[in-house]
Specification:
It is a single chain. With about 210 residues, this protein is mainly β. It is about 0% helix and about 50% strand. It has one helix at about 75; strands at about 5, 10-15, 20, 25, 35-40, 45-50, 55, 70, 85, 95-100, 105-115, 125-130, 135-145, 150-155, 160, 165-170, 175-180, 190-195, 200-205. The strands form 5 sheets. Strands 2-11-10-5-6-7 form a 6-stranded mixed β-sheet, with no helix packed on it. A 4-stranded antiparallel β-sheet has the order 12-13-17-16, with no helix packed on it. The longest helix has 4 residues, at about 75. The chain starts with a strand and ends with a strand. This is Ig-like domain-containing protein. It is found in: Membrane. Pfam families: C2-set_3, V-set.
Length: about 210
């Protein structure tokens, strides 16, 4: 009894880069003589890639995927029907179905793709002093997807709490803006923006 398996967790892709959507047959058997299809069940024209009768047949493929999808034909002999998707865009986020069909059986699996857009490095601006001599700092970073986390850290890398936080969404990109007041003059203050395992950070020395 064969089954089609995909990843248990979402596949994370960075906009502009390539990503592999895993899909394979267990136990391993060649799928060269079978039909392998990738679809987007959430799109009305759902075909992302079709391999049938030993060749790719992408005449009905969603326009947006033209020239961006690839099955590795030598991997098909090992039961590996993973799809390579080039130059990922936000539109690629969503659920994909990988189905494999032979004359005697068929099965499918779902791959959940999450897309990340890395924004600009944070910019720190000095925004004046308060009445007790505290230094107002503003940190902003734009161009992210999904919404990133922004935090301030002192020279010991301890997190400092922001006084005001703002998030703006422009089309499908997020920008974040946080302010803080610093009372120690000889401090190194870091502003760090994080999105899952991606991180950008800027330092200001407030001597």
């Amino acid at each position: 009894q064969y089954e089609v398996v995909g990843p248990a967790d979402p596949v994370f892709a960075v906009a502009g880069e390539d990503v592999i959507l895993p899909c394979s047959v267990k136990p391993s058997t060649s799928v060269v003589d079978m039909t392998v299809g990738w679809t987007r069940p959430d799109q009305k024209d759902s075909l992302v890639h079709l391999y049938e009768d030993h060749e790719d047949r992408n005449t009905d493929q969603i326009q947006f995927y033209r020239g961006r999808t690839k099955l590795i034909h030598q991997e098909l002999q090992r039961g590996n029907a993973s799809l390579k998707l080039s130059s990922v865009q936000i539109f690629d986020e969503g659920r994909y179905k990988c189905f494999i069909q032979s004359k005697s059986w068929n099965d499918d699996t779902t791959v959940n793709v999450k897309v990340e857009v890395l924004g600009h490095p944070p910019v720190i601006t000095v925004d004046g002093f308060d009445h007790s001599g505290g230094l107002h700092l503003l940190c902003e970073s734009e161009g992210w997807y999904p919404e990133p986390d922004l935090e301030w850290l002192n020279s010991e890398r301890v997190s400092l709490s922001s006084e005001t936080t703002e998030t703006h969404r422009n089309a499908d990109r997020f920008s974040v803006k946080h302010t803080i007041t610093v009372h120690h003059r000889d401090d190194r203050i870091h502003c760090r923006v994080k999105l899952r395992h991606h991180m950008l950070e800027t330092l200001i020395i407030t001597t």
